[in-house]
Amino acid sequence: MRRGPAVFVLLGLAVAPLTALLGQSRASKLVDSAFARLGSRSLDSAEALLRPVLDSTVKTTSRERAAALVLHGVIDFYRAQDSAAARDFRAALTLTPGLRGEWLARLDAALGTIWRRERTRAWCGLSDQDSVALAVSVDSTLLTRQLKVLKGPRPVYPERLRQAGLSGRVLVSAVIDTTGHSEPGSINIIDSPHEDFSREARRYVAGAEFQPALIGDRPTRVCTQIPVDFKITGWP
User: Fold this and answer.
1) Each residue of 198-213: pLDDT tens digit?
2) Which CATH number fits the domain that encloses residue 185?
3) What's the CA gap between 134 and 127, in Å, rounded?
């Protein structure tokens, strides 16, 4: 049974942060047009506009293709093809792990659940076979107490980057266990301006201690994203 498309009246506001990133290439114009068609409740037309981007018959950046995949996931969802929507989201996150998709929950709570599950897998390196042990997403409504950093090793600013005047933010994902420590093998770099920053950020997360998240009064494993900033103070 097809799901009703009435919620697409929210789409123009919901996807604005995503489309703003796309610029004015032919691929981005096709994605923007597909959003507009969805706003008029035309799933087939939207899919036709996305096809050249998805098939790479037009020049496409990884971010443009990821945006098209997210939108195609929405189309699949409203055709009651949840597994296909999950595959679309998974492929989008493989291309752009830091992709924002919080707006999907505003379209439909079930769509948001699919997105969070696939994002958790992308962030924390968990496959379909790991679903039984899948950690709770840090923004899950099940949590009664949020995860919090208590302390960690002092990050060392890479000397050659300091000398070059480079700064930036590394986004690190990890599963934090019930004792408040990152699980071995779960730390992944989502986004980083330089591999030297990545190395130091990974060391920081591996040595950090957290206040565990709770469901009720029970500590629970959480998949989270941790920003580690590198800034040069007093730089002329």
Assistant:
1) 999 999 999 999 999 9
2) 3.30.2420.10
3) 9
Domain count, the chain: 2
* Domain coverage including residue 224: 148-230
Radius of gyration of the chain, Cα coordinates, nearest whole angstrom: 20
3-state secondary structure the chain: CCCCCHHHHHHHHHCHHHHCCCCCCHHHHHHHHHHHHHHCCCHHHHHHHHHHHHCCCCCCCHHHHHHHHHHHHHHHHHCCCHHHHHHHHHHHHHHCCCCCCCCHHHHCHHHHHHHHHHHHHHHHCCCHHHHHHCCEECCCCCCCECCEEEECCCCCCCHHHHHCCCCEEEEEEEEECCCCCECCCCCEEEECCCHHHHHHHHHHHHHCEEECEEECCEEECEEEEEEEEECCCCCC
Distance of CA 97 to the CA centre of its chain: 5
Q: Which two tokens stand for residue 93?
A: 């996150």
pLDDT computed for residue 107 by the predictor = 86
- Cα separation, 27 vs 199, in Å, equals 34
Within its chain, how far is the Cα of 193 from the centroid? 17
Q: Under the phi-then-psi rule, with left for phi > 0, alpha for psi from -120 to 50, and beta for the rest, what region is 75? A: alpha
Compute the distance between CA of residue 12 and CA of residue 160 in angstroms, rounded to an integer: 44
pLDDT tens digits, 12-39 = 223 434 444 445 789 999 999 998 888 7
Report the relative pairing of strands 136-137 and 222-230 from DSSP bridges: parallel
74 and 160, same domain (yes or no): no
